[in-house]
Amino acid sequence: MVLLKMKCAPERRKATIAVSVSTSSPTCSFDQAEESNDPFQIILTLHVENTTQPDRAITFCTNGTVFAPSTPGAGIDTLGLGTFGPLVSMDTPDKKIHLGNLKPHAARTSGTKSNDLKERENLHFLTIPANGEVQVKHALPVSRMLQYSNVSRQSLYPGESYCFRLNPDYLGTTWWCWGDLEGDLADKKLSAWQEGLNPEKVEKPTPEQMEEEGWVLGGNPAELAFEEKTGEVRFFFVK
Predict the structure, then answer these.
(1) Are 221 and 6 in contact (CB under 8 A)?
(2) Which CA distances in Å does 71 have to 1, 75, 78, 90, 140?
(3) How far apart are CA 121 and CA 124, in angstroms?
(4) What is the distance between the alpha carbons of residues 98 and 120, in angstroms, rounded to a whole number?
(5) CA 67 to CA 79: how far, in whole Å?
(6) Neighbour-count burial of 48, counting CB atoms closer than 10 A to its CB (0-12 exposed, 13-18 middle, 19+ buried)
(7) CA gap 239, 156 in Å, rounded
(8) pLDDT digits (tens, 9 = 90+) for 198-222
């Protein structure tokens, strides 16, 4: 989904996440096996660039963003949602490989949703360490590149260079908090209530409930900034 982004004055930001885009190799081979242990990939690298709490990790929900995990063979992958622009030939700019711009409908769920986001199916979270980085990788073999494109395999040739960019509409999150999923958040409940907006009309846990039941509140998504640092990414084809 395209993220609904709210404006936030720089002085109100709680943290800024720097995002860099690269490929696993400057070259993509036509002959690489589909089941290769070292596939051509788009790699997103995240680290905390600025923060009001320097010693704390940040955990955020990746659903609907470029950071959502892709599962091969499980329907539309993250690249198919329009998270990146087309791969554009450096030699023939009109020649573009579109990775997909599909808009799947979310399946309806029966019953009430748990107020603990950890208990909801198909929600994914990512932790960025306080001091360090984390990577998200999307496999992109040639067969996947051409899946939704009018460009044929026969029209590609060794030495042909391509460039692409991240789509900023998918850069961000809908929920975040301070902490590490495998550390101080391991035994906590992630409340669907969050600062700034409450579309589900979830009741905010009281201080007593937070202390006794281990609830963690979501921060205002507008106050967690994501900044893409790379711009244009290039690679070229080889046999």
Answers:
(1) yes
(2) 17, 8, 9, 30, 12
(3) 9
(4) 32
(5) 10
(6) buried
(7) 10
(8) 778 889 999 999 999 999 999 999 9
- Token readout for 134 is 């984390």
85 Cβ contact partners less than 8 Å away, ≥ 6 residues apart: 164, 165, 166, 167
Neighbours of 33 (CB within 10 A): 10
Q: Quick one: tokens of 234?
A: 């290039």
**Cα–Cα dist 109/96, whole Å:** 38
- Tokens for 189, please give them: 């409940």
What is the pTM (predicted TM-score) of this model?
0.91
> How far apart are alpha carbons 56 and 216 in whole angstroms?
14
User: Could you tell me how far CA 43 lies from the centroid of its own chain?
Assistant: 11
Single-letter amino acid, residue 16: T
How large is the average pLDDT for residues 46-58?
A: 96
